Amino acid sequence: MNTFSDCFSFNIVKRKDTKARIAHLNKLKNIYRVSKNNPNTLFIIIDASVKNNIATSVTHICKEQALITKAIYHTMNISPTKVELFAIRCGISQAIHINDITNIVVVTDAISTAQKIFDTSCHPF
Fold first, then answer.
1. Would residue 12 count as lying in a domain?
2. Secondary structure in 3-state letters for the chain
């Protein structure tokens, strides 16, 4: 992280602003369209939720429009933030073991949680 801190970027969109949301989705589609021809780019798509005190995390890892792996985790008595952090961590951990990957795009609806990974004052690891 210290070595590559300038390589991380976060794209935040206001969900309630329809125009901003559409522009953001178009930007994401463009990133995907360009990267699908680049075999060195990997997409990690994450969704996690907590219902009835049971957390479910789903992670998809895709390369060149092909699903490489899908992971589903369930746990109890955990906060939504920790579920999202766990899902992001697992996705990135799996991605770094794939050969010749130079770009990793993480798509999540919990961007504030993702930013905590890079803030060592509140998340020391």
1. no
2. CCCCHHHCCCCCCCCCCHHHHHHHHHHHHHHHHHHCCCCCEEEEEEEEEEECCEEEEEEEEEECCEEEEEEEEEEECCCHHHHHHHHHHHHHHHHCCCCCCCEEEEECCCHHHHHHHCCCCCCCC
User: Please, what sign has the CA dihedral across residues 64, 67, 69, 73?
Assistant: positive
Tell me, what CATH number does 68's domain have?
3.30.420.10
Residue 102 belongs to domain spanning: 40-117
User: What are the tens digits of pLDDT across the range 36-74?
Assistant: 778 888 888 888 888 888 888 888 888 887 888 898 888
**What's the predicted TM-score (pTM) here?**
0.70
